[in-house]
Structure formats: structure tokens, C-alpha cells
Design the sequence.
């Protein structure tokens, strides 16, 4: 198990190294002077600034040396300087990564739990109403643009049922309130963005777990469980779901990257102060060091999520344990 | 297996015809086809019936829908005609979606086929590259590409293609791995067919059904992608599109719901119809799975 | 009164070809402590009989259209779901054909046995685990303490079937249904499993309903036998009597299929296949495959009649021309 984990982490680090090299190449492949690209078109950089950038990134050196300098910087945690915000990119992202993780993980849990629950209910009667609902809902959920869902929910909850805040992550007026009030406030703000993001994946998990459950419910060991005298609920949620969860876990791991892409749009719609919002702002300002930093950290989140998925897969399926 | 194929030739019905027969009986898929036909016809010829410059300010801002007969869906925050915008925005949205899906399929099928057919180190290398691309959050990566290389319809389509091919590559690889072991591939090799011929003329046609389904669904994803990029303001600034309409009117949603609602519905209906068709094709190619 | 009485049981299934009758008036009885073998080719209804008795027929598409299944006098076809659950595993238990797939891959075998115990007995989890280990020991699994912590994929087919047997007898059921318990196993392992079943039956005092297609298994295990064909019992009686003096041509065919030295080692089989249930006509279902069939056989279904010391459903046997 620990051998597997070590190899998995090493491979993850290799992938991250790839992301760094890609970032480096992208800046060089972009049309124009890399120093100007790095400074950002909005900045109106002076010749002195450009010169200091060339100095810092070694832009007058051969390309391989430049790559070496860049890699060294990243390893030391230096992702460059945002010329728009006038502060280090790493620090900028550190402030924003928390809200993004909170949003993405809440949405992921919400979609998996609700989706699997709906899917299991649907699987109990393959030809029933619930099954039809899940199929239709999944097709609709897949086809709705996530940012549009968000906007529709804002319109609905801002004007028709004003029970959820539609913007930001915290109320300014609660800045001095005790911590639990602030936490509750964040949770309150989280509801709409998390639900918006969850809705697409919720539909997909419902369809997937319905199919997976139907397959598992036809297995011999389910008949064995019934022959023991287990109650239907036990059969569904203990014997069947544990097995049906395996393909769901696989998809959950693969979807994580898409979830982060979705979070980017949702953060923009709801003004959620996360990395997606930061990416959007910096792209409008052509603030490349920040954009590349966001790409780096978002990829790192996917890598970590993939490692966690692999681990949980091995925990859930005893047949995989012991293999490396 | 070969017995089954003989049966098929006896009935004298090609797999494609059989699939079409199945598809014709699938009501949701036909509904999808009908919706998509209407959308395509409207985006191609709508401007002939209903002429109007989508950029021109023609009326007071935020005219609600259904009040003035000339502007059945109302006007946006500048007083531009929403119907004209939707009709003009459909073409670019669909074109970018189709082009991006085509690019996705070309990259995905080429790499997947090479990996699946040759195996060994080729497979290993290509799959590592695929995994690498799956680590990059697609929309973010596409945003970076579009901004670096300045947005136009082509860069957008290419960017979407570059970020979405890994799934197609995996699917193609799996199909090639499966099919290359079958007798007729061995037979083709035995009569001296070259690798290229076996890959593209023997295996690929037999891998077509799942790839066609995947291509259909990819069009839907690509349209959503294009909409997302345009919504963020990263679309081609000189071209009207549904995503752009939503993005432009976003600030005023609490004053007027219609300028964002109708373009969104257009995106939804397009992707919805495409995915109904995709599901229908999937059922048509795999009749056995339908009973699930 | 017998321990288990199946009386005129009719089970139907709705299929694409309309409603078909899978069991057409099946009557069987099982006395405490005895072994009754139900024999027939696949599709004859023997497994449906077993599953009906367990209340495990999927409904829909299945339906019990008539008759009764009485366990110690209680009609299970009228019992509530809760009552059936309480009975399953406790009073009637079942061993399935496929030990490879009949155990849940994500739970340890000890856990799966202990679960059966906890479902029907008020004991602590620790006690249930200790009982499970003791049962594994009883069914001949070496180092049961360690094996109880294994997952099914870590055990061989024979070991898994022993686990299934341990699970089935964990609550000392009155009736043990064994559905082709050795079909999926190696020949050498088959004999071991039959020996184990015999021992277990002796120790636990359970009545065994053995479902099999193998007349060899019948001679080894059964006190009495019921031969089924196309959803009906076509011959039944004491096992020795039926094996030695079978009256129905189908039974004779099955007996001739037992590989033995007398037949010169060549495997024989009954020509033709069991007719699909939706194509059954008015006559004897076996008539199409029977060398002796007359017009009468194709027009009227024969009933079970006393002939030669036991019951057979054959016009020829009843009228003495066969």
C-alpha cells in the first residue's frame, strides 16, 4: 500500500513538472516579446520594468537556461510577480484557494450524495417514474450551461424568494461577529453556488449510479443477501451500493478537473472570491504570471484529487488491495 | 461471432441501416433531431426572414418581451433586438461547436488509434500525454490558450479541441485494443496489408459506432465550452454569439431577466437536442443495452 | 404432515412472448431429515421451484398463480414480506450454484456469515464472529481464524462453497436448499462437497432439497427423487426405486447419461432440447423427443399415476405399452 502511494505521489510530481514546463512553453510560444507578455498588456510597462523582468527570468539567456531558472523559481515557491496586483502570485493564490476548495468539495459531495441517492431510488424500479425522472433530469442537467443556471437561480432568489444571498462569500456587516456566526454566514452564501455547480454532476451521478445499481442488483451475491433474510434497505444500501460505488468513484475522480472548470464560471457568476474569479480578472488584464499560477494550482488540485480517488478505490475494493 | 455476421448478411441489412431503423423508433431521439433541424434552419436562413442588425440600437433599453410586436423577445440593456442577436449568434456558436468537435475527434482518434494499435512504448508514451492533458482543467487551459493567441473563431475552436481530446483518445484506444485481436484483422494482416491500411481501413470502420456517438456528444460539450468562453468575454469580439449575449447582459439581470434567459434557452435547446440524438444513436448501435 | 409441502404450485412469468407458465402444478413434499433430489435439465423449472420456496422469485415479472408452499403448515405464498424475511436464512436456507459470484466481493467471508447470524439471532457482534469462525472450522476450512478475515477472491471455488454452506447452516435451518451446489466445481472437489453436505445434514438434522441435473448426485445423496420436465413433475418416488426401475422415458434418458464403465465410457445425451415454455402444446411436453411417442401423447397431457411402486406421468407407463 505505501509502495503504491509513493509511486502514485512521484507520478503526480512528474505531472506537475509537466505543467510547469507547459507554462514556460506557453509564454514563449505566445506571439510577442515574452517580457511584454509577462508584464501584461494592461500595465503599460516601462522599459525599466521590462529590463528587470528579463533579468529575473533570464530572458537573455539560452532557452534551456531560462527553463532551468523558471523551474528553480517554482520549486522555491516563487511563481513570479503579478504586475497588476503588485504582489507575488503565490501569495495571491494562497488567499483565493481556500474558497475554491470549499466550493468544489461541497459541490462534489452534494452531487455524489444526492445523485447516488436518486440513482438508487431509480434502480429499485427500472421502469418506474423515478427512473424516467432520473433519465430526463440527467439529459437536461448535461445540456444546461452552468453559468446560465447560476444566473437563473440569482434571478429567482434575488427577486422572487430572497432567502439566499446571491453574491460573495460573507456579509460585510458580520465582520465582527463570533466565528460560528461567520461560518454559518459562509455556509448560507455557499448554498446557491454549490448547488449550481452540483446540478450538472448530480444528474450524471444519478444516471450512472442507476445503471451501476441495476447491474449489481442482478448479481448472485445480492440473491445470497436476500436468501439470508436481509431487509431490502440493507440489500440496497449495504450489499449493492458498496459494489455499485466503484464505477461512481472512478467517474468522480475523472470529473474533478471538469468540476474545477465549472467552478471558474460559477465563481464569476456569484462573485465567489476564489481562484476562478482570480483567473477571470487576471485574464481580462492579461496578467499572465497570475493566470499561469492559477493553472498550476488548479492542476495540482486535480493531481491530489486523482491520488485520493485511487486510494479510496483501493479501500473500497478489496480485490485491488495488495496489488501495486 | 462469425455466425452472427453471416446471419446479418442473410437478412441483407447493413449495420448502418439497422441502426437507422432502431433510431427511427426512438421518440426522444427524433424529437432531438427535429429541434436541431429547426435550430440549424433558423440560424442559416433566419436572418433572411427576420432581418435586423444584432448590434444596432433599435429601441429603448430593456423592452420586455411580447410588448412590441417588432421585438418579440424584447431588447437588451442597450436597446438591441434580442431576436436578431439570437438568430445572428446561432451560426458562430454552431460553427465553433462543430469545428471544435471535429478537431477533438481528429486529435483523439489519431492518438488513440496509434496507442491502441501499436501498444508497447507508443501506447505508454501517448497515454502519459493523455493523462497529462486530463490533469489540466479544460476550461482554464482553453482560456489561457485563447488569451495568449488572441481570440478568433478559429483559435477558440482549436483551443477547445486541444483541451477536450483525451476522452476520445481513451475511447479509440480501447476500441482498437479490442478490435485488433479479432479474426478479420489477423486475416487482413495475413494477406499482407500494411499497418496504415489495417488501422484506417479495417479497424476504424468497425470502431465507428461508439466514435460516432462520442462525436455527437462532443459537439454538445464544445457548444457549452464556446458559450462559457464567450460568456467570460473571451469569444471573438467581432462576432455575436449566445454566450456573449448572456455575458454582456449579466450586470443587469435584476432589472431584466429576458436578455440572458433567451440566449441561454437557445444554448440549452441546442445541446439538449444534440445529446438526445447522441443517446438515440447509442441505443441504436447497442440494442442490447436498451433493456437496462 | 410433512415438513415442507409444495402443493399444485403454479408460477408464471410475463415475457416478450406473453405470459408463460414456468411451473405447472408442481407438488413435492419433504420430510424432516430426509433428502429429496429434484432432477432435470436446465429450464425444467427446478431452480424456479427452489426460488419460489425461498420467496425469491422476482415479482414482477414472476407471479405465483396458484397452489401453496407450506413450511410446517404455514403457507409461505400468503406470508408477509417481513415474515418471509424472518424465515429466510433461519428456517429455510439456500446454497447457490456459483460460489464464485454468490459471495459479496467487498465483505470478508467471516463478516458475511456473521451477518446471517446477526439477522436472526440476538447475539453480540463478537459472539456472531466467533460462531462464524466455528462454522468455518466445522465445514472443514483450515485455519478458520485467518480465513474468516479473507475476502472471497482470496479463496478457491471449493473453499467458497464451504463458506456458502457454513452461511446456510449458521442458523440451523429446518430446510436446506442446495441448487446445483457442485456444478461449478472440479470433480474431485464435488465429491468432497457432497460428503460435507451429508455430514452437515446428519449433524444439523436439516432436510435437504437438492436441485441437480446429475443422476449420479442423486444416487449419492438422495432418499427420494422428483424428476421435472417443462415445469411439471413427471416421475417421483424412492431414489433407489426410480433409479433402478424408472418408468418415464425421460428419466431413463437421464439415467443413461450417467457416465459409467458399462456404457463403454461414451457420454450419452438425450437428443433434442427442452421446448421453450411459450411453445408448449396440449400434449406431453416430452413427446417431441420421445422414441415411443404415439398420437395420444401429442394430444393429451399425462398426469402422475401410480406405476410400478412409484408415480410417473406417462401414457405408455400407465397403460402398460411401454
Sequence:
Amino acid at each position: 500500500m505505501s509502495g503504491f502511494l509513493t509511486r502514485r505521489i512521484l507520478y503526480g510530481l512528474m505531472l506537475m513538472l509537466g505543467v510547469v514546463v507547459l507554462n514556460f512553453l506557453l509564454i514563449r510560444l505566445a506571439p510577442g516579446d515574452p517580457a511584454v507578455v509577462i508584464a501584461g498588456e494592461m500595465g503599460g510597462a516601462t522599459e525599466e520594468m521590462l529590463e528587470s523582468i528579463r533579468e529575473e527570468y533570464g530572458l537573455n539567456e539560452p532557452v534551456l537556461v531560462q527553463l532551468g531558472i523558471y523551474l528553480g523559481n517554482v520549486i522555491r515557491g516563487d511563481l513570479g510577480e503579478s504586475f497588476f496586483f503588485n504582489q507575488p502570485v503565490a501569495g495571491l493564490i494562497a488567499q483565493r484557494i481556500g474558497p475554491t476548495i470549499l466550493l468544489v468539495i461541497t459541490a462534489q459531495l452534494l452531487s455524489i450524495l444526492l445523485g447516488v441517492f436518486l440513482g438508487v431510488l431509480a434502480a429499485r424500479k427500472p421502469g418506474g417514474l423515478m427512473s424516467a425522472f432520473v433519465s430526463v433530469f440527467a439529459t437536461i442537467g448535461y445540456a444546461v450551461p452552468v453559468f446560465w443556471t447560476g444566473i437563473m437561480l440569482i434571478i429567482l432568489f434575488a427577486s422572487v424568494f430572497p432567502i439566499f444571498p446571491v453574491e460573495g462569500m460573507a456579509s460585510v456587516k458580520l465582520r465582527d461577529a463570533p466565528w460560528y456566526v461567520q461560518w454559518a454566514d459562509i455556509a448560507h452564501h455557499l448554498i446557491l453556488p454549490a448547488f449550481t455547480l452540483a446540478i450538472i454532476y448530480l444528474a450524471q451521478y444519478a444516471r450512472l449510479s442507476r445503471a451501476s445499481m441495476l447491474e449489481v442488483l442482478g448479481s448472485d451475491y445480492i440473491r445470497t443477501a436476500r436468501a439470508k433474510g436481509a431487509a431490502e434497505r440493507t440489500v440496497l444500501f449495504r450489499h449493492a451500493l458498496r459494489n455499485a460505488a466503484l464505477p461512481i468513484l472512478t467517474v468522480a475522480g475523472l470529473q474533478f478537473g471538469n468540476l474545477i472548470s465549472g467552478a471558474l464560471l460559477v465563481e464569476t457568476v456569484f462573485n465567489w472570491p476564489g481562484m476562478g474569479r482570480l483567473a477571470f480578472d487576471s485574464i481580462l488584464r492579461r496578467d499572465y504570471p497570475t493566470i499561469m499560477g492559477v493553472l498550476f494550482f488548479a492542476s495540482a488540485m486535480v493531481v491530489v484529487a486523482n491520488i485520493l480517488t485511487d486510494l479510496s478505490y483501493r479501500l473500497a475494493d478489496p480485490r485491488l488491495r495488495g496489488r501495486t | 461471432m462469425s455466425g452472427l455476421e453471416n446471419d446479418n448478411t442473410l437478412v441483407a441489412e447493413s449495420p448502418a441501416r439497422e441502426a437507422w431503423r432502431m433510431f427511427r423508433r426512438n421518440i426522444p431521439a427524433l424529437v432531438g433531431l427535429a429541434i436541431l433541424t429547426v435550430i440549424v434552419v433558423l440560424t442559416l436562413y433566419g436572418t433572411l426572414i427576420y432581418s435586423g442588425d444584432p448590434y444596432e440600437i433599435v429601441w429603448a433599453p430593456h423592452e420586455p418581451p411580447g410588448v412590441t410586436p417588432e421585438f418579440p423577445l424584447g431588447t437588451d440593456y442597450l436597446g438591441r433586438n434580442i431576436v436578431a442577436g439570437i438568430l445572428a449568434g446561432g451560426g458562430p456558436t454552431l460553427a465553433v461547436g462543430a469545428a471544435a468537435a471535429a478537431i477533438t475527434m481528429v486529435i483523439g482518434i489519431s492518438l488513440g488509434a496509434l496507442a491502441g494499435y501499436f501498444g508497447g512504448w507508443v501506447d505508454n508514451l501517448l497515454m502519459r500525454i493523455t493523462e497529462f492533458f486530463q490533469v489540466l482543467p479544460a476550461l482554464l487551459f482553453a482560456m489561457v490558450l485563447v488569451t495568449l493567441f488572441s481570440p478568433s473563431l478559429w483559435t477558440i475552436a482549436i483551443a477547445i479541441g486541444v483541451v477536450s481530446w483525451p476522452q476520445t483518445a481513451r475511447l479509440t484506444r480501447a476500441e482498437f485494443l479490442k478490435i485488433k485481436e479479432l479474426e478479420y484483422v489477423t486475416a487482413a494482416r495475413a494477406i499482407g496489408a500494411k499497418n496504415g491500411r489495417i488501422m484506417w481501413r479495417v479497424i476504424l470502420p468497425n470502431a465507428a459506432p461508439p466514435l460516432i456517438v462520442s462525436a455527437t456528444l462532443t459537439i454538445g460539450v464544445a457548444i457549452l465550452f464556446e458559450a462559457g468562453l464567450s460568456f467570460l468575454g473571451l469569444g471573438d469580439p467581432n462576432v455575436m454569439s449566445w454566450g456573449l449575449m448572456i455575458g454582456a447582459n449579466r450586470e443587469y439581470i435584476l432589472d431584466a431577466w429576458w436578455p440572458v434567459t433567451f440566449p441561454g434557452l437557445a444554448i440549452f435547446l441546442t445541446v439538449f437536442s444534440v445529446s438526445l440524438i447522441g443517446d438515440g444513436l447509442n441505443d441504436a448501435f447497442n440494442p442490447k443495452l436498451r433493456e437496462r | 404432515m410433512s415438513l415442507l409441502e409444495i402443493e399444485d404450485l403454479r408460477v408464471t412469468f410475463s415475457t416478450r412472448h406473453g405470459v408463460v407458465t414456468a411451473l405447472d402444478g408442481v407438488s413435492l413434499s419433504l420430510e424432516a431429515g430426509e433428502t429429496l433430489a429434484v432432477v432435470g435439465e436446465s429450464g425444467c423449472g427446478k431452480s424456479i421451484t427452489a426460488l419460489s420456496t425461498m420467496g425469491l422469485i422476482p415479482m414482477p415479472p414472476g407471479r405465483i398463480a396458484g397452489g401453496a408452499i407450506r413450511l410446517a403448515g404455514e403457507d409461505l405464498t400468503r406470508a408477509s414480506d417481513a415474515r418471509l424475511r424472518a424465515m429466510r436464512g433461519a428456517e429455510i436456507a439456500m446454497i447457490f450454484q456459483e460460489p464464485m459470484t454468490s459471495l459479496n466481493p467487498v465483505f470478508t467471508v467471516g463478516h458475511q456469515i456473521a451477518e446471517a447470524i446477526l439477522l436472526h439471532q440476538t447475539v453480540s457482534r463478537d459472539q456472531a464472529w466467533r460462531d462464524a469462525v466455528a462454522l468455518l472450522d466445522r465445514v472443514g476450512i483450515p485455519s478458520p481464524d485467518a480465513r474468516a478475515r479473507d475476502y472471497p477472491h482470496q479463496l478457491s471455488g471449493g473453499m467458497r462453497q464451504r463458506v456458502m454452506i457454513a452461511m446456510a447452516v449458521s442458523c440451523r435451518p429446518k430446510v436446506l436448499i442446495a441448487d446445483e451446489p457442485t456444478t461449478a466445481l472440479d470433480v474431485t472437489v464435488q465429491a468432497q462437497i457432497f460428503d460435507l453436505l451429508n455430514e452437515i445434514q446428519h449433524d444439523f438434522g436439516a432436510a435437504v432439497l437438492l436441485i441437480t441435473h446429475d443422476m449420479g448426485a442423486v444416487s449419492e445423496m438422495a432418499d427420494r427423487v422428483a424428476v421435472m420436465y417443462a415445469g411439471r413433475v413427471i416421475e417421483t418416488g424412492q431414489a433407489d426405486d426410480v433409479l433402478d426401475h424408472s418408468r418415464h422415458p425421460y428419466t431413463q434418458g437421464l439415467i443413461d447419461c450417467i457416465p459409467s464403465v458399462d456404457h463403454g465410457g461414451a457420454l450419452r445425451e438425450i437428443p433434442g432440447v427442452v421446448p421453450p415454455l411459450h411453445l408448449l402444446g396440449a400434449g406431453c411436453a416430452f413427446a417431441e423427443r420421445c422414441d415411443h411417442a404415439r398420437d395420444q401423447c401429442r394430444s393429451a397431457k399425462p398426469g402422475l399415476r401410480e406405476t410400478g411402486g412409484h408415480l410417473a406421468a406417462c401414457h405408455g407407463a400407465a397403460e402398460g405399452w411401454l
